[in-house]
Amino acid sequence: MSDLFTVSTMHNTDIGNRIQDLLERSGTSPEFLGRQVGYSGRQVSRWINAESGAPIKVRAEIADYFGIDRSELGAEDYIEPRAEDDPIPTWALEVVERLKQRVEMASPSVPDMQLQLDAINDKLDDVLARLPAAVKVNR
């Protein structure tokens, strides 16, 4: 849904004219193009006539269909969403794991800090217990 609200630097009229030009050059009808991108021919005609704007995702699909650069339809910033069943590459998982470890090392949780502080206090008590009475420090 978010692709419906993406702002393009191209005006609907420019996009409509470009779609019309692509249809004419290829001999493709608005109805056929509509079927290719999941819309009706009437909706494609609305885009051509600038009665409404084509979503950025659809503009990217139209550009891909005609084999043109997405920027020609103002869709250069569209990024395909990753499918839920599309596995995340192993290298990406490894990077995430390393980042998690760095975050954990950089900002330990309060219970972890308390354990570390307790361990330091225990070591300090051991050191102080071994000092001669004349050198002992009050804690």
Q: What can you see in these coordinates?
A:
By secondary structure, the protein is an all-alpha fold. It has two domains: 2-73, lambda repressor-like DNA-binding domains (434 Repressor (Amino-terminal Domain), Orthogonal Bundle), CATH 1.10.260.40; 90-130, no CATH class. The protein has six helices and no strands. α1 (12-26) packs across α3 and α2 (30-37) packs across α3. The N and C termini lie far apart (63 Å). The model is unreliable at 1-8 (pLDDT under 50).
Offer a quick outline of the entry.
The protein is an all-alpha fold and 139 residues long.
**Looking at this structure, what is the CATH superfamily of the largest domain?**
lambda repressor-like DNA-binding domains
CATH topology of the largest domain: 434 Repressor (Amino-terminal Domain)
List the secondary-structure elements in sequence, H or E. HHHHHH
Percent strand equals under 5%
Total number of beta strands: 0
**Count of discrete domains:** 2
- So, CATH architecture of the largest domain? Orthogonal Bundle
Gross geometry? rod-shaped
Count of DSSP helices?
6
Helix and strand composition category: mainly alpha
- Average pLDDT works out at 82
Largest sheet: none
Rg over alpha carbons? 31 Å
Walk me through the topology.
Blueprint: H1 12-26, H2 30-37, H3 41-48, H4 56-66, H5 90-106, H6 110-130
Helix pairs in contact: 1-3, 2-3
